[in-house]
Amino acid sequence: MASAAWAVLQVLLLLPTRSWSPVGAGNPPDCDAPLASALPRSSFSSSSELSSSHGPGFSRLNRRDGAGGWTPLVSNKYQWLQIDLGERMEVTAVATQGGYGSSDWVTSYLLMFSDGGRNWKQYRREESIWGFPGNTNADSVVHYRLQPPFEARFLRFLPLAWNPRGRIGMRIEVYGCAYKSEVVYFDGQSALLYKLDKKHLKPVRDVISLKFKAIQSNGILLHREGQHGNHITLELIKGKLVFFLNSGNAKLPTTIAPVTLTLGSLLDDQHWHSVLIELLDTQVNFTVDKHTHHFQAKGESSYLDLNFEISFGGVPTPGRARAFTRKSFHGCLENLYYNGVDVAELAKKHKPQILMMGNVSFSCPQPQTVPVTFLSSRSYLALPGNSGEDKVSVTFQFRTWNRAGHLLFGELQRGSGSFVLFLKDGKLKLSLFQLGQSPKNVTAGAGLNDGHWHSVSLSAKWSHMNVVVDDDTAVQPLVAVLIDSGDTYYFGGCLDNSSGSGCKSPVGGFQGCLRLITIGDKAVDPISVQQGALGRFRDLQIDSCGITDRCLPSYCEHGGACSQSWDTFSCDCLGTGYTGETCHSSLYEQSCEAHKHRGNPSGLYYIDADGSGPLGPFLVYCNMTDGTPLSWWVGRTNETHTYWGGSLPDAQKCTCGLEGNCIDSQYYCNCDAGRNEWASDTIVLSQKEHLPVTQIVMMDAGHPHSEATYTLGPLLCHGDKSFWNSASFNTETSYLHFPAFHGELTADVCFFFKTTVSSGVFMENLGITDFIRIELRAPTEVTFSFDVGNGPCEVTVQSPTPFNDNRWHHVRAERNVKGASLQVDQLPQKRQPAPADGHVRLQLNSQLFIGGTASRQRGFLGCIRSLQLNGVALDLEERATVTPGVEPGCAGHCSTYGHLCRNGGRCREKRRGVACDCAFSAYDGPFCSNEISAYFQTGSSMTYHFQEHYTLSENSTSLVSSLHRDVTLTREMITLSFRTTQTPSLLLYVSSFYEEYLSVILANNGSLQIRYKLDRHQNPDAFAFDFKNMADGQLHQVKINREDAVVVVEVNQSAKKQVILSSGTEFNAVKSLILGKVLEAAGADPDTRRAAASGFTGCLSAVRFGRAAPLKAALRPSGPLPGHRARPRGPVTRCAAGAASGSPARELAPRLAGGAGGSGPADEGEPLVNADRTDSAVIGGVIAVVIFILLCVTAIAIRIYQQRKLRKENESKVSKKEEC
């Protein structure tokens, strides 16, 4: 069991660590002695010298002999100054000066180092490869401490820039101390076996540390195994270091691969790399150079249950070799320690604990290969060919990240043709051009832009041209002509077209490294090229491969996949739920409140509670209506909780237990009572830090015939405290301060602001030289500025309309290693790329100022809310309560969010946000956007009485008071939507106490007709609108707007028609509005009477007459509004979902208990089967339903009687008033 549990590992963290020194190989803490000053002149060398008195021997710091420093013959970027320290030393600092008493100094430079004077490696500052800062005059000294230090014998200073009014001039010093180490060399067929002392107790902690320099890209560095197949192995695979762990569980199939952890990249560069492995109990730490994997095994560990021997460099015995078919290590190991024991020293002294297999030596040979780096797409290397030979033969190795690039161009002799070898889409392509022939193409290899070395061999003789990439061979037939090698081969790129070289390529120049170039049978010496004795070149770095892995460490967040080219990297965020150049910004809102104030209806949404933080997005149901907040959170642990809804954690009670009304007082939950009948507990869990529910377990109570079932509802979310968390800044000198913002590699800031002033600083945080600031620079400009050491950078968004309009505006700024972006509201996002290979860390150390600056100037006047930094919300209100000049909260949200209230809804201010008042809208819902619809069956109708709703107000001029029976109407707005196939149909009928009326009908042919009778002594105005047959079963919208005698009719928001009334301009004493069948239409025209008798069958929605909403009054979910008299007759029900509108609002409100959702004891919600169900619950349910139906019938009868009595009383009152 222990080994099985151990096989599952959980990766906890990947982060850089400080450099460390191996146990026993520590260097003295005082390691800053000058190393160059005591060296002889012969230890200094250079690319060239201006004169003998400007030679490299005069380049020691503060010396004035000779010309007072080194100056090369030509000041260009190909010059260098080199120091030979005599042996490998630890280098901790460097210092530079200009030429004494001159105008010659270097303003920036590169620092390179090497063990043997070949294959140089560039020292990196931070994650950057930028140069070191140099001098600003000739005599001041600029020191730079190296963090971390390095070990090397040779150092090179490469000037990048110098005083434009002078030349390159340098005096230098190097600081450090002696470095002692023991080295072991393995030739790829050898190994060391270290036998531990069995008499000693096995340690509780194993520590293995070493450095390695690999000559080949594959090989086993160490291996240790146990008796049951469990083992640990450290292996170099394609330049990456892989740590294998196998629990050795015999029950597992042998095909199951061991757990692997991979660190590092390009580790086959023939430079030293450090490794540290720590095994303690169930914890394993694996470090390569500056990067560490910490991981934890589940259950008990078996990694210390291993044999008393460990092998280095390979697996020495044949018995163990059959388990590992991979090759042994070819290279050097240094400072090889196991639990503080220097294994290399034991081997060198031939101690009996060490068994050496094969050719093991104790010195590390220096590489003689000279690589060449093509730094840019303009780089090229022109080398002479074997002119006159009857064949073409070129070989070389290359490595790159680029998918495309020119590798080689050559012309054949006598003008017979040319060829181009290039990369395209990661494949090697050869194009051959011969006179009078169409171009011939051949392809070999794939995925060659993986950063590894690949071998290329190109040969042509007589009738065939062969190209071989690694083990992939392609052959191109040629026209049978004599092949002669050309004069010049162009590697990596071509000269400018004006040079007349004839070199051409279908792709851009090559960026990467080349080595082992041969032309004919002769190897090319790049050092001769560097010295000017062979060929020509441009923009090369000779004797160094400058490839770097820009995806290590990966700056792609949230699981984004990193890919790279020579110059940059990119992140694939597909499927992560995040976006941006580093997959930093969430695609989803942080809360239901944010969704709500984008105008979204209730429904299922993904939310990302911490924005750009580590928690991923999750699906929730957002209830946009006001009510009791229910908020469930993503669980972070697998802890067991025994409390239930309404109870505090650890109370072990249900709601009935807290309220004291459980069915059995001995228990705190109904389901614990153990009754023979079914009992239930309906619970709501709202402790955010424990949610969501991921598993429900119901244990067997041990009672025969007992069973249980459950239903788990969806995760519900409501509200967001941080969304409305705000502060008002009342003076220019007021501000809020918080601890320094830590966003070294990625920083995002988002907030809302509103103001009436023209400028002010929203936030500012300073470092020693770095800073970050967001400000309103002008009424139409928001600016994001920062400095990470490359100089100030600004991103500005300009708006066509002012930002100081006292409305809320949303700002989102992000800065990462790729660049910076700024977006305000929905304006186009502005971006600013980061400089190539510049500083990347934002280092801030002062307080974060909100609403002001450290200088107390240019402060912000207005409101800031919902401020979040890297997904963490700052509590502005809490800090504002104790800060003079700043008040918590900010009023006035309707100016921004009032447009969300649609269809006549009114925006109402709340302390935190807004609410839509739909009282005078025909719609309902949080934004007055949910249509109130009704399906009228044949013979059904609904009557809405105006005179019982509206009351007279002498001082009121509103439409509400104008609808009194003693007041006339000179205008009205009518809207309705319908869907029907019946003709004729009465859509709407409005009557008055003076026998005036309005009818909207569909004629027999389905055309829309309107009748206005505004004078009982005249015939009605009848208008027919031949828009189309509107009884087609489709949804149609009708809008009627009357102003005096002018009536404008609009259908389906497009077709309009205007008519003029002749019967009058005043609609007197409006009485009622009837939808559906009209029983009495006395005084109406024949067409209206026929339509009234037929009524309406179909769906009506969004019916509105002025401010009256008849359907809403009758069918509103919370019941009729007080004072409304909307009386249905016959079956009038809500329309089916989607029948009333083309795009209905998503009302997906689920039930917490007894409804939809995941359920079941085994994730299915089926009963736990211990016995058959009893019939008592079924019988009891049937009896309850019967009783409920009888009560409903009685209540309906009483209601009908009351309505009839009230109608008769009203009619008698009306008749008495008319008689008067």
UniProtKB/TrEMBL annotation:
GO terms for biological process: cell adhesion. Disulfide bonds join 863-890. One of its GO terms (cellular component) is membrane. It comes from Macaca fascicularis (Crab-eating macaque). Belongs to the neurexin family. The keyword Glycoprotein applies. This is Contactin-associated protein-like 3. It is a single-pass type I membrane protein. It is found in: Membrane. It comes from the Eukaryota. Keywords: Cell adhesion, Disulfide bond, EGF-like domain, Glycoprotein, Membrane, Repeat, Signal, Transmembrane, Transmembrane helix. PANTHER family: CONTACTIN-ASSOCIATED PROTEIN-LIKE 3-RELATED (PTHR15036:SF36), PIKACHURIN-LIKE PROTEIN (PTHR15036). The chain crosses the membrane at residues 1177-1198. Residues 183-364, 370-545, 725-890, 947-1135 form the Laminin G domain. Residues 547-584, 891-929 form the EGF-like domain.
